[in-house]
Design brief:
This protein has 540 residues and is an alpha/beta fold. The chain has 18 helices and 16 strands.
Length: 540
């Protein structure tokens, strides 16, 4: 049996990814990402362009202290300037000063750029490529040559584009990487050009695709099928314009569907973790619909789907989600069936047999609430409380008597002032009447509620509001439209979502806030019951 061909992954998240709009990593961010990439078996990590900015210079200095298990750091730059010898070119000197085991440079392979950007002849362009690579090979272990705009150049003049590759190979390039820099080529064009280059040069080939036509993954996989051994891209596909090829998708497909060797199975199971780590450091909301690693990648909503995956996950899942560190999720909505309710009960640790009689009642209430605008897909804590209500009656740890929120602005150039007054009945029947201010009406209400409950439930100080979203439902009613508020909360151990719906944004926020606090108290009670049960079993 022939061993699976190995494909090297070359990550450029720290350089090409940083060119994306709204993406910026600190030096510390880049170091942490590099370590995570090394952990999952990425072969090359492109750290940036030495000399282009202080942050990249600081990264290469700090990267020397990293203890990487197998990844190699690459410095990125361009071929020498026109009219300057390679040994005197500032850019090439800075690349060598980074002291990385790998240097990657890009050069022109499209006559349009040679003539209209560099304003030189084709022969001069060949000399620039050859001199730059020859010089670098005398001083560093490995040189990768990125053929900028290669596929556009090949479409324009195949002979010239291939000759650029021959020159790079003759100069000693270790890998020649063909770039779809504009992201505009089709898979059949990638295949034809790759075949032509393979016939012309013996040097190992790579592929670097942008996603402007949403074909970066398809184009990269096509190139691999036609013989390339290195794929360049970024985690989550971040990058300039529409982004680079998404390595999360490429890695999963190469290993799980095309059966190439990319990384160990244990490393592949950390793919989702690394994806979310990069989103987090980029201060971006993870793309829940991202294939393989997104929150919704293996989420099931339709009742027929849920009933099927309970019998056999392959009915509606193209891979086992755990292979990439993801998990199967079942959503509850007005499209749900009884199977969804029973599945969620099992997920929440509720006795499924106890739920069965109440499942239809809970399902009917869910559908009624969603008809009014509630959404439980991002508010599973609210749904679990709803389920407990269906089983055990209303779950409430306190009772609202009333609240009042004042939002006032006294001067045009001064910030508004928010104050909330609240009266609740505690679990012992006593009345708490508190006042709190805040930087907005919802914040003031949240602080007043916590102030009133702290006497009874001091653990609510652990709760932190992590995210707050308001969505207007329906666009024809203007300021009188119904709104849906989604709140994400956490306590250092867990994160949970709650929902509220009302024509009044304060009321909708109140509903979601109450569910957030109630869920914290409910799960703490549930945890304590579990501990007591375990202790009882150990002494029995």
């Amino acid at each position: 049996m022939t061993a699976a061909r190995h494909i090297d992954i070359y990550d450029t998240t720290l350089r090409d990814g940083c060119q994306a709009e709204d993406i910026a990593f600190t030096v510390e961010d880049k170091l942490r990402i590099a370590e995570r990439l090394d952990d999952i078996g990425i072969r090359y990590i492109e750290g940036g362009w030495p000399g282009s900015n202080p942050r990249d210079e600081a990264f290469f200095t700090a990267a020397k202290r990293l203890t990487l298990k197998q990844a190699q750091i690459a410095a990125f730059g361009s071929t020498r300037r026109i009219g300057v010898r390679a040994s005197e070119d500032h850019n090439l000197k800075m690349l060598l000063q980074a002291e990385t085991p790998v240097v990657t440079i890009f050069g022109k392979t499209w006559k349009l750029h040679v003539h209209e950007d560099l304003h030189i002849s084709e022969m001069q362009n060949f000399e620039v490529i050859h001199d730059s690579i020859t010089f670098l090979k005398r001083h560093t272990d490995k040189v990768i040559f990125d053929c900028e705009h290669f596929f556009d150049g090949f479409k324009d003049d195949p002979e010239f584009a291939i000759e650029c590759c021959r020159v790079a190979a003759d100069a000693g390039a270790d890998v020649i990487c063909m770039c779809d820099t504009n992201g505009g080529r089709l898979p059949e064009e990638i295949a034809a050009a790759t075949d032509a280059v393979r016939q012309a040069v013996p040097t190992p080939l790579g592929i670097h695709c942008h996603n402007d036509s949403e074909l970066a993954v398809a184009n990269s996989l096509t190139a691999v099928q036609h013989g390339v051994v290195q794929v360049q891209g970024t985690i989550n596909g971040i990058g300039e314009r529409c982004g680079n090829v998404n390595l999360c998708s490429v890695i999963a497909i190469l290993q799980l569907k095309m059966h190439y060797k990319v990384m160990h199975a244990a490393q592949l199971r950390r793919l989702r973790e690394v994806s979310h780590f990069v989103w987090e450091l980029a201060n971006q909301e993870p793309n829940k619909r991202q294939p393989f690693v997104g929150l919704s990648a293996f989420a099931h909503k339709g009742g027929i789907h849920v009933a099927a995956v309970q019998k056999n996950p392959q009915t509606y899942e193209h891979i086992d989600p755990e292979l990439v560190g993801n998990r199967q999720r079942v959503l509850v909505s007005d499209l749900s069936g009884r199977s969804n309710i029973l599945y969620k009960a099992q997920e929440f640790g509720v006795d499924v047999e106890a739920v069965k009689p109440a499942a239809r009642k809970v399902l009917a209430e869910v559908k009624e609430l969603e008809n009014r605008g509630f959404q439980f897909e991002g508010a599973e804590a609210s749904f679990e409380l709803l389920m407990q209500k269906g089983l055990n009656g209303k779950v409430r740890s306190f009772r609202l008597i009333g609240f009042r929120v004042i939002d006032a602005k006294h001067e045009e150039d001064k910030a508004p002032y928010s104050e909330a007054t609240i009266r609740i009945e505690g679990p012992d029947g006593s009345i708490e009447h508190t006042v709190a201010d805040g930087n907005g009406p919802v914040n003031a209400l949240d602080r007043a509620l916590r102030k009133a409950l702290r006497k009874f439930y001091p653990q609510i100080d652990e709760v932190e509001l992590l995210d707050y979203k308001v969505r207007v439902l329906g666009g024809g009613e203007g300021t009188s439209a119904t709104v849906r508020v989604l709140i994400e909360s956490g306590d250092g151990q867990d994160r949970w979502g709650t929902v509220g719906v009302s024509p009044n944004v304060i009321e909708a926020s109140w509903q979601a806030l109450v569910d957030s606090i109630e869920y914290k108290l409910y799960k703490d009670r549930k945890r304590q019951r579990g501990k007591r049960a375990a202790a009882h079993e150990s002494t029995a």
